Amino acid sequence: MRREGKVSRGVNQGGLDYYHKLLDALLEKNITPFVTLFHWDLPQTLQDEYEGFLDRQIIQNFKDYADLCFKEFGGKVKHWITINQLYTVPTRGYAIRTDAPGRCSPMVDTKHRCYGGNSSTEAYIVAHNQLLAHATVADHYRKNYAVSSLDIAKKGKIGPVMITRWFLPYDESDPASIEAAERMNQFFHGWYMEPLTKGRYPDIMRQNVGSRLPNFTEEEAALVAGSYDFLGLNYYVTQYAQPKPNPYPSETHTAMMDAGVKLTCTT
């Protein structure tokens, strides 16, 4: 819908027309649309310009894009998802390169397929910027678009989608396994839910990650906390957790190792 990735560079009317037709077809069949603004499809131009969500410029660009969507489709869409699976792009895209944009530390991928990156730091920066982008868009929507009539049933709602797993102790009689499961839940769910509910990161993340974990200003914390009307949950699997030493600062370290946990899939 945007030319060259930014609304300021023009919009693609053909793209807007396509989505209008799609939404009209859904509504004609009495299907309620839930529209996702970002499902890992960052414009390549923004990745090339400033590495996408690694740079805070993305916050304003994401807001501009969301505003275009709200203006164009707000009369047809009352349920908006800001970002799909907040955990996925920071970890798989900026720590272990299995997803776009494919960044990681050189020794994390010995086949040298990463085009750059730091697996110990970038995931935390990207996650932080995603939370701020989400909260900025949610705040903008609530203030300018959410209520279009006096009928409360027509009030729009906005929120993110979370990737969810659950973590159980590998050995329920072992205190270390019990602690590992709790740590993993904090690193996996708390990484996003603590900011979304309390405006801060979990204490165990602060302890284990230290200065590599960004800080929210007081204003940002207030913006992020409570910045959702609903949460989408994509549930995949339950895993067993047991303690494992964190190899930081080795050349093969990734942010996903900071919990100090070894995971095993349940059967």
Automatic annotation (TrEMBL):
Gene Ontology biological-process annotations: carbohydrate metabolic process
UniProt KW Oxidoreductase keyword: no
Entry-linked InterPro entries: GH, Glyco_hydro_1
Family statement: Belongs to the glycosyl hydrolase 1 family.
Biological role stated in the UniProt entry: Degradation of glucosinolates (glucose residue linked by a thioglucoside bound to an amino acid derivative) to glucose, sulfate and any of the products: thiocyanates, isothiocyanates, nitriles, epithionitriles or oxazolidine-2-thiones.
UniProt GO cellular component terms: vacuole
Species assigned in the record: Brassica cretica (Mustard)
Protein known as: thioglucosidase
